[in-house]
Amino acid sequence: MxxxxxxxxxxxxxxxxxxxxxxxxxVEDRQLVGLVGPNGAGKTTLLRAVLGLxxxxxxxxxVADRPVRPGRSPIGYVPQRHxxxxxxxxxxxxxxxxGLARRIGLFRRPGVEHWRAxxxxxxxxxxxxxxxxxxAELSGGQRQRVLVARALVLRPRVLxxxxxxxxxxxxxxxxxxxxxxxLARENAVVMATHDLASAVHTCDRLALLNRTxxxxxxxxxxxxxxxxxxxxxxxxxxxxxASIGIDGGVPAxxxx
Amino acid sequence: xSPVDFLRDLFNPDLAFLPKALVIAVVxxxxxxxxxxxxxxxxxxxxxxxxxxxxxPGLAVAFVVSGNLVLGGTVAGVVTAxxxxxxxxxxxxxEDSVIGVFFVSAFALGIVVISRAPGYAGSLQQFLFGSIxxxxxxxxxxxxxxxxxxxxxxxxxxxxxxxxxxDREMARATGLRTFWLDIALYVLVTLAVVISVQTIGNxxxxxxxxxxxxxxxxxxxxxxxxxxxxxxxxxxxxLVGLYVSWSWDLPVGGTxxxxxxxxxxxxxxxxxxxxxxAARLSAT
Lengths: 256, 284
Prior knowledge:
The structure holds 2 protein chains of 2 kinds.
Chain A: E1 3-14, E2 17-28, E3 32-36, H1 43-51, E4 58-63, E5 66-67, E6 75-78, H2 92-97, H3 101-104, H4 112-124, H5 140-152, E7 158-162, H6 170-183, E8 188-193, H7 196-202, E9 205-209, E10 213-217, H8 225-232, H9 239-243
Parallel strand pairs in A: 3-8, 3-9, 6-7, 7-8
Antiparallel strand pairs in A: 1-2, 1-4, 4-5, 9-10
Helix pairs in contact in A: 4-5
Chain B: H1 3-10, H2 17-41, H3 45-64, H4 69-87, H5 95-115, H6 120-129, H7 137-166, H8 168-173, H9 178-200, H10 205-219, H11 223-248, H12 252-270, H13 276-283
Helix pairs in contact in B: 2-7, 2-9, 2-10, 2-11, 3-4, 3-5, 3-9, 3-10, 4-5, 4-9, 6-9, 7-9, 9-10, 10-11, 10-12, 11-12
């Protein structure tokens, strides 16, 4: 199967600081890929490079066989929740509609087809009943769903999720994990997260990132503790390895 | 003075400046109410203040050379707003620092320019605190047409402004030109300020931008309602302010601002969901 998202030899600098080096990553359709690594590994920068928001120093990023272009490539982006102004007085459906602002076009108002797309996106994240509620009144998990719906309204081929589990309790994380798994049946999904347990449980591929992709594969195949130690910069006695079953066991992956 | 007497004065041919002042004050307040909704929701009050001060050198130059005040103020406000937007791209400086540098220097330039004009003290006071006399007929048309243009532009760019305000990063990711949308909003704030300066004055114009929108925010959780309520509150306060000012011979700009502030305080205490009393009742 061909990759719907591919990065080849990608380097990214922020100012003079090298953040990503020689990144190779290939994500196929209907794959849920967890992008894991320590703080400062370049997870968010990698997502921003795919979106075309930061320039690559070298290398190539292709989405659906075309070079990535902001606003043109079929990508849906779910930023970290704090990036959104939650006290802004808009309803859930109006917030989702903002995802279509550019596609509707300058000086034009949303049409029937746009409201239909918003309705479909809200249905996919099971938020139809709350479509008229002000976003300020939503819980953390509901807010995450609104951001996912806003990304889905563009009907993307690739969905990028940036730390979707941060600040959420375990039951909410489980429900969202099921949602992302369901979305991966129709799209390629890349999820940057520092929550290893959720990533191992939810994703069918993991990319271990620390400025470059140290390892890529099914959670159950990534048994070599050395790649985890290299990716996270930890010793072999680190509780991190035990927490994901590397310490003598095999991570329990989705569908295994 | 009773409201009927005020109405009679409005139609008195010897007091022709009064209806012109009323039209300009109400239109300016309505336009500022609409634009001010974004100023309040985006936390742009400091930028609004900066633009208000930045139009001063343009007004001063236009006054000295007997040119068009609206045009002069707009050019100066837009130039300053663009300079702020460009210099704020440098990440070592936060935007409020850049604003602080440029709006004070623009205001200082205005003072230097107007000091070269004859009757310097009187002109300065008129610019800073507003006046309802000496408004030419042409200015009424300019203010009304400019106001209509600003409201039309806001309606046309509404969904883009909302998208950028809600989530700037996502707006960029979907291909919206956030820099140019910022410039467009600054230009609209500038125009709203310029058409308000004549009656309310340069120092007090920020109140027209911020206070009605802040009051409306206390009263509603709906953006559409807020964008109707803010200009309605602003327009009504301008009418009441002008009436009170005319009745008791008070400065018009200051009186309008005090009426706006009174409305804000009433909303702060009595607003149905977010007022002081409602908050106390829901806490018990």
